[in-house]
Amino acid sequence: MTATIDTRPQGANPFDPDAGLAGIGTPPAARTGSTVPTGAVPTPSTPPARRSAPRSLPNGGVGASRTGARRGVITVTGSVGPRYAEILSTDALQFLAMLHDRFDAARDELIAQRQLRRQDIADGSDPDFRASTRPVRDDPHWRVAGSRRAPGLEDRRVEITGPTDPKMTINALNSGARCWLADAEDASSPTWPNVVEGQLALHDAIRGSLSFTNEAGKEYTLRSADIVDLPTIVFRPRGWHLDEAHLRYTDANGITSSALGSLVDFGLYFFHNAAELIARGRGPYFYLPKLEGYKEARLWNEVFEVAQDALGIPRGTIRATVLIETLPAAFEMEEILYELREHCAGLNAGRWDYLFSVIKCFRTRGDSYVLPDRAQVTMTAPFMRAYTELLVATCHKRGAHAIGGMSAFIPDRRNPEVTRQAFQQVAADKKREAGDGFDGTWVAHPDLIPVAEAEFDAVLGDAPNQVSRQRPDVVVGQHELLDVASARRAGATVTSAGLRSNVSVAVRYIDAWLRGTGAAALDNLMEDAATAEISRSQVWQWIASGTVTHDDQLPVTRERVETILLDVVASLPSEPGSRIEDAAAIFREVALQDDFPAFLTSPAYQAHLVDSPADQV
């Protein structure tokens, strides 16, 4: 199949670009007596405003312009380690300041709209496909860029995921996967060293010079200095909702706030590596996390255009794969593809965060929206299957790649039975994905690459993908996507073991995250921030819904969970650097209080991670 690119000028959308939240909730302008100033979120649980009062800048502020015009300034407030100046150079900080000048306020407004939409759903407005954007869905002619003129993205049958510290970077690039999701988001704890040293590791890897020696003296090196011999790097910056506390942005009016984690991660990677990647036969490729609708995709597209123009790189060079990992985004897949079309490679089924989003949206909607134990919500549950089938059909209709999700099972080289079960579970998961039409998938461990690859090889053969395989048989509507009760109708239940597992896994993961590790092997599963989000959200929902555990017929209450929490904390070993008590305090805050923070990582970052021992250079 030959993809065609829509030639209409960017921004000339065939639908109202300022349409309201049709089908998802009441547009903000229609709320009687309600106003939403930029950056404000009018809910009782509104966190402190991101912006602070104007203050004088310490040395180190770098403006966005070398002209006499007063523009924004980025200031480094974090400590500086060896080679940090290579990443945090004057020119790089000027580039970040320019991006913040253009997009800081727009991001704040989108975050406000997110919370209004989320509240509408909690109040009873079911998400649906937008009437205002129907012309995009009904137009059969437009296509996205896909992998056209994007070397290294044609064949993505197996991608390995992981954080960007030097050891993991080398292991991922030596793994034999087709692509590497270089993760600065859910699989990375955003300590200041992780942020900057992850950028350094990527910088060196792209240039073939990365090496690492651990404390025991073991040396890790790249198997090739030529990047085209290694997995294609697809970098995932932090989502729109996350801030970077170690860089401060002061706008033209003298108002100072934390920089945006998304623009920091994207901007530093793009500034330092885009031209180098192109020269070496690859390109600047990205995964975009946590989008909740087409307007957020539009903002990323504008960022791409401005960034490419600023560095003299042709528009369309960037390629982005969007994770469909929120419930609102599942109803706007085609619109998201359209907004990013000249920069879009595909969509990914971010299954774990998708479950978190489902719980978050419906947490107050009663028993029919209660999800059973996390381990019992498989990808064959009807509402999950509807989501993945729609994703494949949507992608292939528009010439985009559909990338499957990660099976969390991991092998244990010291335990053959655990390894056998992991291989069996992963093989079944990838066989389903390949058969459904996915063009590639994720794994979390190098030993799983041959297992996943065998299932895709059986379907793809020598073809690089199956984008040409259309799925006219897929008919998915609002009911199918929202049929959350289908999991329990199929026999899945809420159990006392599932409740304890949620508490235990959440606390242990948060402990690891506070110590600087964002991807943690727990109970033979590779867990990231989405795991803790699902776990704490389920506990909150079960308490709010008066859920009774199936095996013992006891209600899930705060008192019951507190008892389990105390037992879990007491059972965990005390070791140097332990953050178990802090992890338990965070769990209480995000799972046992009346308010429900949109993300646990936001309050945990500000109150417990910044300036902690793990945050020191």
TrEMBL record:
Q: Which UniProt keywords apply?
A: Acyltransferase, Glyoxylate bypass, Transferase, Tricarboxylic acid cycle
Annotated metabolic or biological route of this protein: Carbohydrate metabolism; glyoxylate cycle; (S)-malate from isocitrate: step 2/2
- Record domain Malate synthase C-terminal: where: 494-606
A Pfam family hit: MS_C
Q: Give the superkingdom in one word.
A: Bacteria
Enzyme Commission number, as recorded: 2.3.3.9
Q: Residues in domain Malate synthase TIM barrel?
A: 232-483
Q: Which PROSITE patterns match?
A: MALATE_SYNTHASE
Give the catalytic activity.
glyoxylate + acetyl-CoA + H2O = (S)-malate + CoA + H(+)
GO terms, molecular function: malate synthase activity
Checking SUPFAM superfamilies in the record gives:
Malate synthase G (SSF51645)
Q: Where is the Malate synthase N-terminal domain?
A: 75-133
> Where are the stretches annotated Disordered?
1-68, 122-141
InterPro entries annotated for this entry? Malate_synth_C_sf (IPR044856), Malate_synth_sf (IPR011076), Malate_synthA (IPR006252), Malate_synthase_CS (IPR019830), Malate_synthase_TIM (IPR001465), MS_C (IPR048355), MS_N (IPR048356), MS_N_TIM-barrel_dom (IPR046363)
Q: Can you tell me which family this protein belongs to?
A: Belongs to the malate synthase family.
Name of the protein: Malate synthase
Species name: Promicromonospora iranensis
Q: What is the lineage of its organism?
A: Bacteria, Bacillati, Actinomycetota, Actinomycetes, Micrococcales
